[in-house]
Structures are given as C-alpha cells and as structure tokens.
Amino acid sequence: MQDWREHFAELGNGVIIADTGSRAVHFWSSDETDYRIYPTSVPTSEELTKRGYTQIVRKKIGPDWTPTQSQRERFGWEYMPPGPDNPLGTHAMYLSWPAYLIHGTHDTRKIGRPSSDGCIGLYNAQIEELFGICPVGTQVRVI
C-alpha cells in the first residue's frame, strides 16, 4: 500500500506512484476522490530501472515504437508501427525522461514480472482506463 502524501507535497493534476518492488501502479486523482491500483510489468534489472520524480508530458493512442540504440544493438529490434505486435500496446503515456513510458502490452504474460527494458507496462484495458483519467502534467514517482 502506498500513500501519495509520503511522496508529493500536493496532488496537483493527480499523481502516479509506480512501485517496482510490489509491481503496482497507484493513481490518485487531483481531488483525491479516485484511487486506483494496477498490476504492472517492471524493468528486468536494476541497471534498466530509473527511479525518481517525473511527469506525463505526452499521451498517444496507437503509439508507434522506435527502439533505443542499445535495444537495436542488443536485440536487433527495428521500428514498429501501431498494431497488435507493437510492444507499447494500445496506449502510451510518455514521461519527461527520454525513452521511459507507462504503456500497454499485448503480451499479457509480462504483467506482474520483471520483463521490460525500463518502462512500466499495464494490461491494455487498464492503460486505456488510466490514460483516460490522467492529464498531461500528472506527477509520477518511480520507486
């Protein structure tokens, strides 16, 4: 269980706490009337895990995906347009940290386990729900 007050001075546009230890995303609305928790995928290693404060700077339905240079070198991955094979699923919320997102996944086996290259992943139905209630500017803390 998390309490937003332990991490933020105020709710602002709302807050998200991505807890990599419990593999859960916690959301509170700006007026604290809505609290939700979702199971997530987390990064596969400490080296890929970025912790700290950020915020949602952009949102996209049907995101395309361009792997980082490191991912291209390690896995040979290439650009992928929106669709059922896209690793970002149906919706993506981009953080102020380059290449870090909260997004969906079509591969439901990834949720609840270390399976990402740094991002926080949710089931597509749950990212669609969270996407709909989080405005750009929502504060995020990854712990």
Topology readout:
Layout: E1 15-19, E2 24-28, E3 35-39, E4 42-43, E5 52-61, H1 69-75, E6 91-95, E7 101-105, E8 114-116, E9 120-123, H2 124-133, E10 139-142
Strand proportion: 25-35%
Mean pLDDT over all positions: 95
Order of helices and strands: EEEEEHEEEEHE
User: C-alpha Rg, in Å?
Assistant: 14 Å
Shape summary? globular
Which percent bin holds the helix content? 10-25%
The largest β sheet comes out as: 8 strands, mixed
Please count the helical segments.
2
- The total strand number stands at 10
Structural class: mainly beta
Low-pLDDT residue spans: none
Q: Looking across the biggest beta sheet, what order are the strands in? A: 3-2-1-10-5-6-7-9
| Separation of the first and last Cα atoms | 13 Å
Task: Give an overview in words.
It is a single chain. The chain is mainly beta and 143 residues long. It is 12% helix and 34% strand. The chain has two helices and ten strands; from the N terminus they run βββββαββββαβ. The chain has helices at 69-75, 124-133; strands spanning 15-19, 24-28, 35-39, 42-43, 52-61, 91-95, 101-105, 114-116, 120-123, 139-142. The strands form two sheets. An eight-stranded mixed beta sheet has the order 3-2-1-10-5-6-7-9, covered by helices on one side. Strands 4-8 form a two-stranded parallel sheet. A hairpin with a 4-residue loop joins strand 1 and strand 2 (24-28). The two termini are 13 Å apart.
